[in-house]
Amino acid sequence: MMTTDEMIAVLQAHKEGKKIEVYHGSPLMWEACAEQPPWNFGMYDYRVAPREWWVYIDNDEIRSCLTKEFSPAIPVSAIRVREVLENE
After folding, report:
1. Residues 6 or more apart from 31 whose CB is under 8 A from it?
2. Which residues of the chain have pLDDT under 50?
3. Which terminal residue of the chain has fewer beta carbons within 10 Å of its beta carbon, N or C?
């Protein structure tokens, strides 16, 4: 069950355009919410979706870490990075 402060934080994040995920009760079952989540804090928990990005490496040096999508047109190695949240 989410605290009032957690509910307010996730609603504010949604208002700011951040992606939201919903927890259905099964282990590791966070799922992306629709553009307008059907808020039901009595049944579900919500959170801001973890951030993901790609880090490009060229000659063992980081070339870029600002890309949200992988681009195979860039001829370098790439590593997908995903934020780990406390409750994972």
Report:
1. 21, 22, 24
2. none
3. N
